[in-house]
């Protein structure tokens, strides 16, 4: 597995998103998820991504147990600032320094570690100046509880403002063949400042693999609430998955591998490290995803895939 530098931290060029192991995508599988995280480390997939909001802390506990005894092999990224404790499906964005510092202490405890490698502000709270929130993260670095800081789903101006308070190692945003928002927003600022883009949902929440039947999603699957996963939108978006599948068939690989290879290939075009963090709770899919970075895409492939986003039916949310 290739590596990238995140402001002095060496991370794998592809990471593992752990959210779905605890929430959003159906029932949790503790043993299977632990095995998947440990297999990731075996494959040198070292960037392990979690958050305190995933499963109301369950996910951090899971990650902590999975990396126990192998802490030096993992680069643990977690987040704070999205509070779901007010009730199911209701989120309050919190960014006060006191809240973030207490959240960090709680995350350290759940993870069972002495320091968090990469600590993100999960979302910018509308009622707290961003500089105050970032200042709190900077103090956590000074206290030795955090190594590097990151931001999630921010604009270019927000990234610049935060970076003036403390260097930002990475911005995490949804980015894939069918979600290209960072290209017209935060990417330019990230390039100016030397900040990496960590791409979540690089498989379009599974849709780009061509294996998702939207009519068969479990009742508690969070994708049921997303416009792109309605039956009507899925019919319209089938042309996108077929185009990805055609490229995959020509190469003897899977559609998911092509989608991931496309995301990783955008590093050169955007001029910043782009690190996809596909999520899975199964070793089988982890191994398939990890092999995706070895899939060669020609200029013709990239040109063909580049225009698919223009045909997307349905918004992100």
From TrEMBL:
<dbReference type="InterPro" id="IPR050791">
    <property type="entry name" value="Aldo-Keto_reductase"/>
</dbReference>
<protein>
    <submittedName>
        <fullName>Aldo/keto reductase</fullName>
    </submittedName>
</protein>
<feature type="domain" description="NADP-dependent oxidoreductase">
    <location>
        <begin position="15"/>
        <end position="308"/>
    </location>
</feature>
<dbReference type="Pfam" id="PF00248">
    <property type="entry name" value="Aldo_ket_red"/>
</dbReference>
<keyword id="KW-0560">Oxidoreductase</keyword>
<dbReference type="InterPro" id="IPR036812">
    <property type="entry name" value="NAD(P)_OxRdtase_dom_sf"/>
</dbReference>
<dbReference type="InterPro" id="IPR023210">
    <property type="entry name" value="NADP_OxRdtase_dom"/>
</dbReference>
């Amino acid at each position: 597995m290739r590596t990238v530098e995140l402001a002095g931290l060496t991370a794998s060029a592809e990471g593992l998103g752990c959210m779905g192991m605890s929430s959003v995508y159906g029932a949790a599988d503790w043993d299977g998820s632990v095995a998947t995280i440990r297999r990731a480390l075996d494959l040198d997939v070292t960037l392990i991504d979690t958050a305190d909001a995933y499963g109301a802390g369950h996910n951090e506990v899971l990650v902590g147990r999975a990396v126990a005894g192998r802490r030096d092999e993992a680069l643990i990224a977690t987040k704070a600032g999205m509070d779901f404790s007010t009730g199911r499906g209701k989120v309050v964005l919190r960014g006060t320094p006191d809240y973030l510092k207490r959240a960090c202490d709680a995350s350290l405890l759940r993870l069972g570690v002495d320091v968090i490698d990469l600590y993100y502000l999960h979302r910018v709270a509308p009622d707290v100046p961003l500089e105050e929130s970032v200042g709190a993260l900077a103090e956590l670095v000074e206290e030795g509880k955090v190594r590097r800081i990151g931001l999630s789903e921010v604009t270019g101006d927000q990234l610049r403002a935060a970076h003036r308070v403390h260097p930002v190692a990475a911005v995490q945003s949804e980015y894939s063949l069918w979600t290209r928002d960072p290209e017209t927003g935060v990417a330019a600022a990230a390039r100016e400042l030397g900040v990496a883009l960590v791409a979540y949902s690089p498989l379009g929440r599974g849709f780009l693999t061509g294996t998702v039947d939207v009519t068969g999603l479990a009742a508690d699957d969070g994708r049921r609430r997303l416009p792109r996963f309605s039956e009507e939108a899925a019919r319209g978006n089938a042309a996108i998955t077929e185009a990805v599948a055609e490229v995959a068939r020509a190469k003897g690989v899977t559609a998911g591998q092509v989608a991931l290879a496309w995301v990783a290939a955008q590093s050169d075009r955007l001029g910043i490290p782009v690190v996809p963090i596909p999520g899975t709770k199964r070793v089988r899919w982890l191994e398939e995803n990890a092999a995706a970075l070895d899939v060669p895409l020609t200029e013709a492939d990239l040109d063909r895939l580049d225009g698919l986003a223009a045909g997307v039916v349905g918004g992100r949310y």
